[in-house]
Amino acid sequence: MTVRILVILGHPDRDSLCGALAEAYAKGAQTAGAEVEILRLGDLSFDPLLHRGYREIQPLEPDLLRAQERITWAQHLAFVYPTWWGGPPALLKGFFDRTFLPGFAFQSRKQGPLWDRLLAGRSGRLLVTADSPGLYDWFVNGMPAVRMVRKAVLAFCGVKPVRVKRFAIVKTADEARRQRWLAEAELLGTRDGKWGAM
Q1: Residues 157 and 110 sit within 8 Å (Cβ to Cβ)
Q2: N or C: which end of the chain has fewer CB within 10 A?
């Protein structure tokens, strides 16, 4: 069975290391026979702000409507983004705020505290870059850039399992290390292209 994969680049610059990782991952998945699309958030035209919270849902721009269609189409979602100030970029957070809406990604139940996970049946992959060492980010910060996306967004909406690959330390990485990271991303894409992140 062909796996349908949507790669979402959360870095606003497609010419970044994250952009190269997204391309490498997509290449590996395509090599494995998957159908792959890349959604580059920096190329989309949308207002990332929820001006009235969820009290009043803003009309979705055409690019966000298409993003929802692609998320619905996909069986596997791969997010590629950097860690900035301990979290994902504002662009990715704004994308979640505007796109992962009640009635699309989740639905609160009228009675009680539970909710329906409307994106269930999909798996996920996070490819996250960082400048802080992994142990420091884990023990001091609690890895918020990973935990927020993996738990508070994707798991909340039913996406599971969500596998994580962290690439660090970017600021000290030479070209040889960056090439190794790109090869790792391509290998992960090949694996996910065969089975999703199961």
Answers
A1: no
A2: N
